[in-house]
Amino acid sequence: MTVTEKDASGKFICWYPDSTSRNRKKIGNTFKTKRLALVAYNHHCVKKKDDVNLQMEAWGSTINSIKDYDKRKKYYALVKPKGDLEAKKYNGVIFHHKKGKFEGKVKENGRPRSKTFNTAREAAEGVDSFSVHVERQTYPLNFPGEVPRLIPWPKKPNQANGGRNAIKAQVEYRKKKPKKRASKKKQKTVKKSPKKKAVKKEEVKKENKLVSAVECPICLDVMVGPVSLRCGHGGCEQCIADWLRTNKTCPICRKRPRGKPVPNLMLRNLITDIVPLAHKDDRDEWEERKKAYDAWKRG
Question: Is residue 106 situated within a structural domain?
Answer without folding.
Answer: no
